[in-house]
Amino acid sequence: MELKMASAPFRFVTQISITQITHWKAKNIHELLSCLKEVPGSVIYHHTHRFLKQHQFLSPEPPNDFAYWVDTALQDEKLAEKLFAIDTIRFPTIRDIREKIIQTIENHLISYNNYHDAPEGDEFYFKQSISFVLPTPYEAWNLSEFAKALKKVSINSLYHHIFEARIRPPLGINDFSNWFETALGETKLAKDVAKMDPYTHTLEGLRQQVIHLVERRIQEMMRV
Amino acid sequence: MFNLDDYISIVGENEISELRLISEKLRGKSIVNINSTSIGGGVAEILNRMVPLLKDMGVNVRWECIKGGEKFFIITKKFHNALHGKKEQLSKEDFELYLDTVRDNVLSLSLDADILFIHDPQPAALVLERNKYKNRWIWRCHIDLSQRDENLWNFLKPMIEQYDASVFSAPSFTQGLLHRQMLIPPSIDPLSDKNKELPRQTIDEVLSRFKIDAERPIVTQISRFDYLKDPVGVIEAYKLVKQYVNCQLVLAGGSADDDPEGVKVLAEVRQKAGEDPDIHILCLPPTSHIEINALQRASTVILQKSLKEGFGLTVSEALWKGKPVIASSVGGIPLQITHKYSGILTHSIEGTAHWLKQLLQNPEYAKKLGDNGREQVRNNFLLTRHLREYMLLFLSLDHPNETLIYF
Lengths: 224, 407
Fold this sequence. Notes:
The structure holds two protein chains of two kinds. By secondary structure, chain A is an alpha+beta fold.
């Protein structure tokens, strides 16, 4: 049996970034809180997502930047743990992630007021990414071509289609699921890929899991 | 000289393909790097490697140097020191001679390129000529400005603010400038003599030459004999650990013959080491890259117990060899080590000793840190990442207010 052709191809792009240093910095939890309310969404995005690419091979996965700083510079393990545990995938927008972080810190400060300053030189510097999206030579018209291309693209491409996609319209959906559903009518596969928690895998692990789901679906189709 | 494909075995084909993809977007743009010397120093070392690789990708890039007399370079050396926080006497005449010398260079440099990439303060004043051209200017600052001399900074700042962007190696090195400030850390070259893979035979030969026992744990600090690198503190930490673990200590650095302070530090280090046959103090010539590489590869744990540090790239060099590293949380070191994930950050002799004992007694955890450290460097501190970020920096100049740019 021939595999179904898509109504439009999936074109893999890649996303590569450089880091800009902003003028916001914090030396204690109160300054961190006040900056969190002020900085642009792109700054929040950088600090909650940067580690996905930067520490992709580290095991165990280190926490997001805010949790790490509160733990190592402010030595507030309790708050660090709460910040670490924020399940980023649950939040469809950066605004929601920001509100959750702010709320977590404010709730913590009601009972554990922490006035410690970070040691000199350990201040928190707020940064943001400047990202470039470039086309790659890879495109797919059916699931087999898709799996083949997915084995070849860089993790930066994977990052764009899974993480960056979630904060662009249609909100909360990764590009792969969107294409499976709208261009191939593969609703179940789209749902299976959407259900994965991308924040608990390394990018390489994610790649393997998506390939596995796609190849399993190809085998099912071949059996029919 | 290496070409880009030589790096495929280290970073993978994808990474190199992406570099080529980005370089295509720079077609048609000319880029000129300007610094003050083509030999010696970290800036020349990195440009010597990067410029040929950019050319290999088809980027129209050149590298030119500013010329000046002895007086000019004495003044710019004072600039360098004062920006690092050292007290220097700088007169009105010094500032005038600086500006005159830079102005004298204008005709001999290619200031009409599309992008001028100016390194450090020596050629910074060239930007005063920018109104004659319709091009973009970037200032690459390799210096930590956090302790800078105010008088000098007041002189330089109005110039620096005429650039379209500036680039710093660490966030704490920056100064509140009005234009875009980018973070681009330095990098190591995995194919250089200092970092390339070595056959076991070479490592054994180096150990045997320096009479170091390959069978017992080796703790190493590689750095010049300087108070700021705290070699005496390293010996104290070693002595605290030696009571529990039968290890050896290697302190290896450049010969201190032409540096009076270095001679003094070395004498103190020797005195502190006393008669302990397990402390190896090695003064090596500046070309001893293979020896340093071998010593790092033979080490069980590597220390960098600096009291103050620039970026501290020796940490990345050690991590690249898959070694567990214990380093002070100063300068650019916290950017290279995520504490307890890819190495250990400490603040004291006692803390260093505590973690040293832990790592020597827990080889599995030490190995995990070393493995993670190597991957951290592979992803963030190799020359290929540096090339990628410089090319993206050049591309970003056409999009001064955007954070997401589609090509």
